[in-house]
Amino acid sequence: MGGMNPTPRQRARAQAIEDIKRIAREQLASEGSAALSLRAIARELGIVSSAVYRYVPSRDDLLTMLIVDAYNSLGEAVEEAEARCPREDLVGRWRAIGTAVREWAVARPAEYALLYGSPVPGYHAPVEQTGDPGTRVMMLVVTLLVDIQRGVPVAGVDGVLGRDLAVVREAVGVEVGEEVLARGYLAWTSMFGLVSFEVFGQYKGSFSDFAAHFAYQLDRIAAGVLGL
């Protein structure tokens, strides 16, 4: 048997929450996450502020909704791009991951800033809600590292860093040596560093074609860091 159709009240509630999130995203784009206000959203929707609280208990709950939606939107975009590549094309998969991240971020800079910009004062994201959505892109990179490891000898990393990497490896539950995992961290942070510099305007006056610069650097990371 199929699931029950939502009732008119359930549909109305779902639509109200979507309207609240839509106005909230507009606030993010115009004023930034720190200025997010449920009262301002209520004014924009033409309702009393107490009505908003029936759907969203607090500003922090609204931020969490927006973060989860943004992580899932980013994750879906990157997963779709990566899935179009043959599994044996490791360079192509890396390019697809990076390019999809950049394209999503450039198209939705306010949401990217919410995920990867400065923390919102007084807000702490609940990991039980944001953890899985927030690791969707990372797990694509981890899967790529597993495939990279199959082609090279397993190597460790000495000292406290090696122990830290071993803990991460066990937590993620993948067969990857510490040395490849360390390279993965460098590739991951380099890719997001490139995206963040572009989205937050740090390259202003430096490049006329940001996409070409990103593609070039992405290939340098593939060759010089990931060994592809």
TrEMBL record:
List where the protein spans the membrane.
none
Q: Which residues form the signal peptide?
A: none
Name the SUPFAM superfamilies for this protein: Homeodomain-like, Tetracyclin repressor-like, C-terminal domain
Q: Which UniProt keywords apply?
A: DNA-binding, Transcription, Transcription regulation
What sequence ranges are listed for the domain HTH tetR-type? 14-74
Q: Which GO terms describe its molecular function?
A: DNA-binding transcription factor activity; transcription cis-regulatory region binding
What is the protein name for this chain?
A: TetR family transcriptional regulator
Which species does this protein come from?
Saccharothrix variisporea
Q: What is the lineage of its organism?
A: Bacteria, Bacillati, Actinomycetota, Actinomycetes, Pseudonocardiales
